[in-house]
Fold BTB domain-containing protein.
Amino acid sequence: METENTISPEFHFPDADLIIRTVDNMTFHVHKFILSFASRVFRDMLSLDNLQRPSHPHQRVVDVSETSMIWDAALRYLYPLPRPTFKNLGPIALLFAISDKYDIPIIASALEDTILISNLSKRYPIRSFALAKKFNRARLLTRAETELVKQHCEIIRTTTVPEELDYITVDDVRRLEFYRTERLSRIRKYLTTTKLLPTPECNCWERYKRTVPKRCEAWECFVDACWEELRESPTSDISDLRLRRRAVEESECPDAQEVLFRHYDLDIGTLEYEVSRYAWLYPEKWAESKATIAATNEEEREDIEFEYTE
């Protein structure tokens, strides 16, 4: 027994010349011109005119495998109707899939914009990254990579496994770890070599008087504390007083408290501003690193020799 079709309450235009029939038997009465303009798949399909004929000879029917809920949301990106709002990435993933299947660029671009102007990539950085990889969304990829580096997300250890996770490769994981390490090393070098106010003649002055610039041993402890903090929490504020307290506890200089909390107080505030401006992604350096690794591997292959026992 054939199930009776239900007509979409929103998409039943009187001048419609195309019917989309979903897997749950809802029909959307729409326009061939709009679907052909938005979707390359529909354009090719309609140009071949290889569709079922309904009772009205001027209309055509396309049977699709998706539900009416998905098609109702998708068509709202092609007509001037309210678009869906999103609390998570689940519905967005479904719409990305239909956009990809039927080649509807306007939906994919709009979804990417939605994620970028919301906090969804911050709340779901791993899945945002996976979606960007699966559906080739360059802007979302950059945003998601930045969030993954900022939040120090460990993709391999994640307990949340979205279906798009398979699109994240080992090379992606290595690249993100490279970005974290590169940023940390640059910050450490900056903190170690930056010019500070002249160090007062503290207890450790004699031991460090030959260094340029001269500085208290407590400063190295402070740099170590900053490095450890930023390694675990990349967005931390290095002017946080607890980092100086940690450095004082680790320092052997009895004047460390005075040096870090009074003498270098303004310096540390300035350094925090500079550290916060460091880039999160280093694609050029990553490309250089990969090229170096590839060259090393090539040299190793050239040195390979086969040995045989007689």
User: Anything to note?
Assistant: The radius of gyration is 30 Å. The mean pLDDT is 90. The first helix runs from residue 32 to 38. The chain is about 55% helix and 5% strand.
